[in-house]
Design brief:
The chain has about 250 residues and is an alpha/beta fold. The chain is built from seven helices and seven strands, in the order βαβαβαβαβαβααβ. A seven-stranded parallel β-sheet has the order 3-2-1-4-5-6-7, sandwiched between helices. Helix 1 links the parallel strand 1 and strand 2. The mean pLDDT is about 95.
Length: about 250
């Protein structure tokens, strides 16, 4: 079933990982997809592969910390496909330092991508989303937006926690405008960002901490995005959807 026929989606950080899987899933559901990323070659390839598979997609170079680049990305959705129905704020940046080791510059850089980028996306896209009868925003937070994790990565935790609450705030503000706003909180997902941990003790720790005993797949998060973007979730807003193999139930 193609639940997103005639709809237009914009997915940030779509050159790899969760964003890549999400762009493909939304295209398979019938949506035209604006693929955005700072990785031009991989982003262009993502859009090309969607088109080669019979879907509609275009790539836009996009630094989510820039308001002008947000305006360009949103304008591209309107120019290429006639509007915007679905916004997926997925682009993110992580760190592993402790609070003592985190410089102010590094802290602000992580927050600018993971938190401010989400704020800018919703702010700039607001007008087009309000014109859609199916407006839906999905913000990718994290299990570490709710839990303290391992006591490291304070900027990442702070930013993802802010995304969790910002999602609820805007969901309430936009409820009467019929724009739904939800957050997804992935657990440990097998994406390229985990490549350095492959086969190491840290990878095993992540598996051991997950009750289902394995890493998640990007496609499993993409399936959650597709649900929240569709009319199957027409009465769902302000939700925190945990796709984490049971991590937060511990």
């Amino acid at each position: 079933m193609r639940r997103l026929e005639e709809r237009v989606a914009l997915v940030t950080g779509a050159a790899s990982g969760i964003g890549h899987a999400t762009a493909f899933r939304l295209a398979q559901e019938g949506a035209a997809v604006v693929v955005t990323d700072i990785e031009d070659e991989a982003g262009e390839l993502t859009a090309k592969n969607i088109r080669d598979g019979g879907g509609r997609a275009v790539f836009v170079h996009h630094d989510v910390t820039s308001e002008s680049e947000w305006q360009h990305a949103v304008e591209t959705a309107a120019h290429e496909f006639g509007g915007l129905d679905i916004l997926v704020n997925n682009a993110g940046h992580g760190d592993l330092a402790t609070i003592e080791e985190t410089s102010l510059e590094d802290y602000e850089r992580t927050v600018s991508i993971d938190q401010t980028g989400v704020f800018l996306g919703m702010k700039v896209a607001a007008s087009l989303l309000a014109q859609s009868p199916h407006g839906s925003v999905i913000n990718i937070s994290s299990i570490f937006g709710t839990s303290g994790g391992f006591g490291t990565s304070p900027a990442y935790h702070a930013a993802k926690g802010a995304v969790r609450t910002l999602t609820k705030n805007v969901a309430l503000h936009w409820a009467e405008k019929h724009i739904r706003v939800n957050s997804i909180h992935p657990g440990f997902i097998d994406t390229p960002i985990l490549e350095p941990a492959r086969g190491t003790e840290f990878e095993q720790v992540m598996i051991d901490l997950t009750p289902m005993g394995r890493l998640g797949r990007p496609q499993e998060v993409a399936a959650g995005v597709a649900y929240l973007a569709s009319d199957d979730a027409s009465f769902v807003t302000g939700l925190e959807l945990y796709i984490d193999g049971g991590y937060m139930a511990r």
